[in-house]
Write a structure and sequence with these properties.
A seven-stranded mixed β-sheet has the order 1-4-5-6-7-2-3. The protein has helices spanning 2-24, 28-43, 51-62, 87-96, and strands spanning 45-46, 65-73, 78-83, 98-114, 117-130, 135-149, 152-161. It has a single domain (28-161), classed as Nuclear Transport Factor 2, Chain: A, CATH 3.10.450.50. With 166 residues, the chain is α+β, with helices and mostly antiparallel strands. The protein is 37% helix and 44% strand. The N and C termini lie far apart (68 Å).
Length: 166
């Protein structure tokens, strides 16, 4: 009886220690990947959404960026630096063009040129359905730059990488 009680207490202490470790002592790589997962969650759209919900999601996406962000996507002829408060209007406009949106990130390769800067090379899979019902299925290679500010990794740049076709 006493041994079972001690075993249960030990198991609870171990479970608590694991939870505390993952909540407070994540590696920078884990925090960076978590930001990409947050971005994917906030971009997601399933059907019609109220304007207030769209604005809330756009604002939540904006919070993942620093004071300004440079976006370079050669395949769409985009090369511009946006102020942080200029991100929401573009997100809202893009969301009005689709009734369904998902984005997933794969193949993370994270480098740290400095202690507070990371460069992440990855594959992004964008799937959507336009308002007119046309499916969109795109795969992009990207290079993202993030800076560590107040112990949070925030996006400072997104660059599309052209991949040679066979």
């Amino acid at each position: 009886m006493i041994n079972q009680k001690n075993m249960v207490i030990a198991a609870l202490l171990i479970a608590g220690a694991v939870i505390v470790f993952f909540l407070f002592f994540q590696t920078d790589e884990a925090k960076i990947k978590k930001n990409f997962h947050k971005l994917a969650e906030r971009v997601e759209k399933n059907g019609d959404e109220h304007n207030l919900i769209a604005a809330k999601k756009a604002h939540a996406i904006e919070q993942l960026f620093t004071g300004s962000v440079r976006i370079q996507i050669p395949s769409y002829s985009v090369d511009k630096t946006f102020p942080r408060n200029g991100i929401s209007p573009h997100v809202l406009f893009a969301r009005t063009r689709y009734k369904k949106i998902t984005i997933k990130f794969y193949d993370f390769q994270i480098q740290f040129p400095t202690k507070d800067t990371s460069i992440v090379e990855l594959t992004a899979v964008f799937k959507a359905t336009t308002i007119s019902g046309e499916p969109v299925d795109e795969v992009h290679e990207a290079e993202c730059t993030l800076d560590k500010i107040d112990n949070e990794w925030l996006f400072t740049g997104i660059k599309g990488v052209d991949v040679l076709e066979r």
